[in-house]
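stage 2 :: seqdesign
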């Protein structure tokens, strides 16, 4: 566990995520300006304010570290050994229509590895966090070790574009597979908070397409799942974060193997 000036990186990630979550919670229900980013995508003042709060915490404690923020972009040396990845409000559309399904993600990439991370739920008050070796959830100032479980049979599937592996893989076709319905029940919350829920045993798995390298959205959740003991790969079993190959994060090897087989079944031969 890296400790600088008396504070570990993991505790700093937790504190920063809590700071962002407090802003998100305080601004909930307000009439917030929207700032268009791309087709169908936008930020609100809550996204911007939460990111400012997170960056204030990180830059005060670690002024020499580089940062990539969802809203503010990259700062610091391009080849920095230590880089914080910040997603201040994952689930902006949910939030904008007053749906309390959002997460605040903070992760530290040290070299090729994510060595500290936190995902905060602004409305439950929970923070899921890891030092890269173990993972916990903090609630009411007490920490409980995260324990994955496939018992719910609930699988969260990301249906938001882009889908770089289409037409070879499309999540809607996975949901239509009879084999999926025989084993699992789908959920779509449209926030990477659901990835943390896999680590916590509240989801059996999470599946998404996309290029997740240096992803401010997914870095924290992937780190939590790995530290909790989940099985985590790309869509076809390859090491995650190595290309535009998406993610299968599963509570156990059996659930992962089933989903991997279903994904391969939905991928036309040769694609």
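stage 2 :: out
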């Amino acid at each position: 566990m890296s400790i600088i000036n008396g504070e570990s990186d993991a505790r700093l990630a937790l504190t920063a995520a809590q700071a962002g979550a407090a802003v998100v919670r305080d601004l909930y229900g307000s009439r917030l300006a929207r700032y268009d980013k791309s087709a169908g995508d936008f930020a609100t003042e809550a996204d911007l304010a939460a990111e400012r709060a997170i960056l204030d915490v990180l830059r005060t404690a670690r002024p020499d570290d580089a940062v990539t923020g969802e809203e503010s972009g990259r700062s610091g040396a391009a080849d920095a050994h230590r880089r914080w990845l910040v997603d201040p409000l994952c689930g902006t559309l949910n939030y904008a229509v007053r749906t309390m399904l959002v997460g605040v993600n903070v992760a530290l990439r040290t070299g090729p590895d994510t060595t500290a991370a936190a995902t905060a739920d602004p409305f439950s008050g929970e923070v899921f966090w890891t030092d890269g070796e173990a993972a916990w959830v903090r609630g009411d100032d007490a920490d409980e070790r995260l324990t994955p479980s496939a018992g719910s049979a609930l699988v969260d599937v990301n249906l938001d574009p882009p889908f770089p592996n289409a037409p070879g893989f499309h999540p809607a076709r996975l949901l239509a597979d009879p084999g999926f319905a025989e084993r699992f029940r789908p959920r779509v919350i449209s926030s990477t908070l659901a990835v943390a829920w896999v680590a916590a045993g509240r989801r059996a798995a999470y599946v998404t397409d996309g290029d997740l390298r240096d992803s401010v959205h997914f870095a924290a959740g992937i780190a939590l799942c790995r530290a909790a003991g989940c099985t985590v790969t790309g869509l076809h079993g390859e090491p995650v974060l190595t290309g535009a190959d998406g993610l299968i994060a599963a509570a156990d090897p059996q659930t992962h193997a089933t989903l991997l087989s279903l994904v391969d079944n939905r991928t036309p031969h040769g694609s």
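stage 3 :: structure notes
- The longest strand covers residues 82-90.
- The chain is about 30% helix and 30% strand.
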